[in-house]
Amino acid sequence: MAHAEYRFSVGPWNLGRGADPFGPPVRPAVPFADVLRTAVDLGFHAIQFHDDDAVPDLETMTPAQITKAAESMRKMLADMGLVAEFVAARLWEHPHGVDGGYTSNDPAARKWAIDRSKRAVDVAMALGTELMVMWPAREGTGVRESKDPVEASRQLIAAIDAMLSASPKVRIAIEPKPNEPVDTAFLPTIGHALALGTRCADPARVGVLIESAHAILAGLDPSDEMGFALAAGKLWGVHLNDQNGLKYDQDKVFGAANLRGAFDQVRVLERAGYASTGYVGFDVKAQRTQPAEKAAAHLATSKAVFLKLVEKVRTFPESVAAQCIAARDYEALERLVLEHLLG
Ligand code: GLO
Ligand code: MG
Predict the structure, then answer these.
(1) Paired sense of beta strands 140-141 and 184-185, if any
(2) How close is the Cα of 247 to the center of ligand 1, in Å?
(3) What confidence score (pLDDT) does residue 4 get?
């Protein structure tokens, strides 16, 4: 049987300038046209956008101007054979979003966050995608007593409902993360995201995007998180990467810390036929030590590792595995997996 081809996506922030909390940028900014060229050269098919990646000055523009600018971005993509995968409202970098957007304690900031998110829906529609990603970056606390968690979940539902009402077509994929930049986030896991989705105005239009590192930071297995979302028909995007234990969000190359964990993620995607329903995105960062001319290697490596693991999944001796499982010989299964990955 012919396999569906995987399609790959990437965001401009994945070609970053190498800044970290301890030092300034070490590489020049990559002009947007070069981001697109790199994506094409590396065999990617779609671009992931923050609203202001697509329309940089959207805060100062009218809705008509925003739509026009997004339409010309769509044309620029099309001219290079690319499409937009999703748009995410980048609330966390704006001064109004300093204490979170939807769950800010400042009503003016909450209003701004919802207005901006609706504008981001307009950007998505004009770019030709119906998918919005909501990474609730600062929707949480550094000081636990500073916000009311009951009220916060109502505010998050109200925000999603506002986005849903901005277009009858829009679908929202929540990208949960347990911490960073906040200490304690209100939507830490896929379970929380899916549960919240059921309480929104149109649950059929609310799903999830799973980032491997975010699941690991919550102490969870990314492949199980993916399986849980796939079972509900809600896995609308993935940010594959890797993470070496519980520390800052590392955005390492896919498979770099735990190759077996990466194999398990590819296996769950492959078995569910994800290739024909969603893009494979990599939310990975180049190391600070990389010079500009080699600062896309992490993307090429992530994609190469993914494709090699697809082959590993397709050649995994499933019938031998089934015999091990039937005999409850899980030590034999363990060896089978390890030998297969080493072979
Ligand atoms: C950070 C997030 C971030 C989002 C992106 C899309 O930890 O993973 O990269 O995926 O901003 O909303
Ligand atoms: Mg991500």
Answers:
(1) antiparallel
(2) 17
(3) 83
Active site residue 53: yes
Mean pLDDT score of the chain: 98
pLDDT at 25: 98
Asked if pLDDT for residue 7 goes beyond 70, the answer is yes
144-188 pLDDT, tens digit per residue, is 999 999 999 999 999 999 999 999 999 999 999 999 999 999 999
Q: Is the beta carbon of 239 within 6 A of some atom in ligand 1? A: yes
The residue written with tokens 């026009």 in the block is 68
Query: H or E stretch including 305?
Result: helix 297-314
- The mean pLDDT of 257-274, rounded to a whole number, is 98
Peptide bond just before 317 cis, omega within 30 deg: no
**Active site annotation includes 50:** yes
**Pick from 152, 166, 301: which is nearest to 240 by CA?**
301
Is beta strand 280-282 parallel, antiparallel or unpaired with respect to 8-10?
Answer: parallel
- Nearest ligand 1 atom to the CA of 180 is 7
Domains, the chain: 8-315 (3.20.20.150)
Position 1 confidence tier, pLDDT thresholds 50, 70, 90: low
C-beta of 285 in contact with ligand 1 (< 6 A): no
Task: Decide: 196 in ligand 1 pocket, CB within 6 A.
Answer: no
> Of the residues 51, 52, 53, 242, which is catalytic?
53
| Structure confidence at residue 51 (pLDDT) | 98
DSSP string, 230-241: HHTT-EEEEEE-
C-beta of 270 in contact with ligand 1 (< 6 A):
no
Question: Three-class SS of residue 8?
Answer: strand
Ligand 2 (ion): residues with CB under 5 Å are: 211, 239, 283
Q: Please give the structure tokens belonging to residue 152.
A: 């916060």
At residue 339, the 3 state secondary structure works out as: helix
